[in-house]
Amino acid sequence: MSLFRTELRRLAKRRFARWMTAAGLLVLVLVAAGLFISNQKIGPEQWAEAERAADRQHQEQVQWAEQERVNCERAKAAGDAVDYYPSDCAEISAPPREVIEAQWFLPSTFNFRESFGDLLIPLAGILAMVGFVVGASFVGAEWNTGGMMNLLLWRPKRLTVLLTKLGALLTGLLALALPASVAWFGSLWLVATWRGTTEKMTSGVWQSFLLTGLRGIVLAMVATTVGFALASLGRHTAMALGGAIAVMVVGQVGLGILLGVAGVRFAEAWLLPTYAYAWMTKTVTLQDWRSCHATYSGECKPATLDITWQQSSLLFTVAVVVFLGAAMWAMRRRDIT
Q1: Fewer C-beta neighbours within 10 Å, C or N terminus of the chain?
Q2: Which is it for the CA torsion 246, 250, 256, 258, positive or negative?
Q3: Does the CA dihedral 63-68-73-75 come out positive or negative?
Q4: What band does 30 get if pLDDT is binned at 50, 70 and 90?
Q5: Is the separation of the CB atoms in 201 and 214 below 8 Å?
Q6: How many angstroms separate the CA atoms of 47 and 59, rounded?
Q7: Angle between helices 237-245 and 112-145 (to 10 degrees)
Q8: CA distance readout (Å), 124 to 131, 179, 248
Q9: Tell me: the pLDDT tens digits for 176-216?
Q10: Cβ-based neighbour number of residue 335 at 10 Å
């Protein structure tokens, strides 16, 4: 029997993997449902209501200006010293009607072109979280229950067994990520069709969405590999989950506070979420408002630092090589007991 097919079957039958997958998909369903409920399609009725709302806003401003003008004249006549009124009370007037735009009062609408790229980020985050936890439990449970030792009696080649497990895990992740991405696209396209707009979708926009989706899948595969490697290195699921909690809560939160107190420039450049976000959006620009770059017009602009997807890819590659390499070294060198 093929070891790869056996590992795929074992992965598919794990109840924890099924429950984690179901939980991740449920979150996506709730997000899509929330978007559907909170948005509306803009039509003549919505524009008419927005115009009426703008008229009401203008009338309120007119009434307020008239009342303030009366109060100003009363205060001037009484000889009260009031600094918040102008010297000439006639200067208090409402803004013209054309300044108040009707589009300010339109209900929220879902623009597929403007919103879908950003909504690929939570999809990638959920897939990465599911992949990390399932990957850690997949190999961690084997070590904890003694299944790894029994498997090595059948297939004594340690690295082959470990890498086959990882290959089956990543294959399972792809089997989840690809249909989930298609379903995510389809659900948001329906939301845009019924509760928004799908206009201005060009070939360049489609290509950008496709590349962002592929980067999201790669991010999930990196997280899955790291979770698998940590659990294999510690021979327990808790090794990966504890390490993740330590890095995110103690390391990232604590490090962020420490860097902020120390006044380090571009403190976000030391935090992992910055690189994950840069990987998905291609570039993240950090700003340091404590530094002033004067322009010819006298404007003060903050110093900036760009974090690019190339830098993120280097970090992810190093993480995979280090953790997976350490897991392979430990698998080869340590006793299987």
Answers
A1: C
A2: negative
A3: positive
A4: very high
A5: no
A6: 18
A7: 140
A8: 10, 13, 17
A9: 999 999 999 999 999 999 998 998 899 999 999 999 999 99
A10: 4
Q: Using CA atoms, how far apart are residues 24 and 297, in angstroms rounded to an integer?
A: 51
Q: Nearest 5 degrees, angle CA 82-CA 86-CA 92?
A: 120
Q: Which residues contact 260 (CB under 8 A, 6 or more apart)?
A: 267
**Coil, strand or helix at 82:** coil
Q: Which helix (H) or strand (E) holds 290?
A: strand 283-294
How far apart are alpha carbons 215 and 211 in whole angstroms? 6
Q: Are 181 and 217 in contact (CB under 8 A)?
A: yes
Bridge partners, residue 303, by sequence: 288
The rounded distance, in Å, linking the Cα atoms of 197 and 193 is 6
- Residue 160's Cα: distance from chain center in Å? 35
Domain ranges of the chain: 3-41+108-333, 44-105
Please say whether the dihedral angle defined by the alpha carbons of residues 209, 210, 215 and 216, taken in this order, is positive or negative: positive
The one-letter amino acid code at 25 reads L
What's the whole-number mean pLDDT along residues 21-50?
Answer: 92
Confidence band for 223, pLDDT divided at 50, 70 and 90: very high
Rounded to 10 degrees, the C-alpha dihedral 176/170/148/3 comes to 90
pLDDT of residue 336: 54
Residue 47's closest CA among 114, 104, 118? 104
Query: Which has the minimum average pLDDT: 160-164, 273-277, 297-301?
Result: 297-301
φ, ψ (nearest 5 deg) of residue 149:
-65, -45
Q: Which of 126, 125, 169, 149 is nearest to 17 (CA)?
A: 169
Give me the phi and psi of 289, to 5 degrees please. -75, -5
